[in-house]
User: Fold this.
Amino acid sequence: MEFSTIIKFGTIAIPSELKDKLEALNDSKVVVSIKKYRHNRSKAQNRYYWGVVVKTIQAYSKDILGEEYTKEEIHLYLVHNILERIPEVNVVMGDHILTYKDVETSKMSTEEFGEYIMKIQKHFAEKDIDIPDPDPFYGINLKEIL
Assistant:
């Protein structure tokens, strides 16, 4: 079971649903783990990334370079060039497989993902390609993205 709460002055606020679970475990040996809460990237960030950022780069690749790439290929390009991750070669069942270690953008915090987006925008601005900011008209909050 996992829950989030706030610690103030060294005291943990325990939600009522957790109190009920603790009472059910009375006289039981349990393991308690504490870690700092972090917001993973939001659904709005995810929609903006795949629907605006990746699609803009796909359109540039097709229209300017004459090369078509899948969303996943563009994503791997960004991981390699923006996050500067180097693929590793692993042997799995006798085959050589390329993998990226610790590269799950979906596990980034909202802040980390916002920094990633800004790096992408800067990278493509240097190529005279505008990756547009999120449009509040479509229900995307710029503060939520960046």
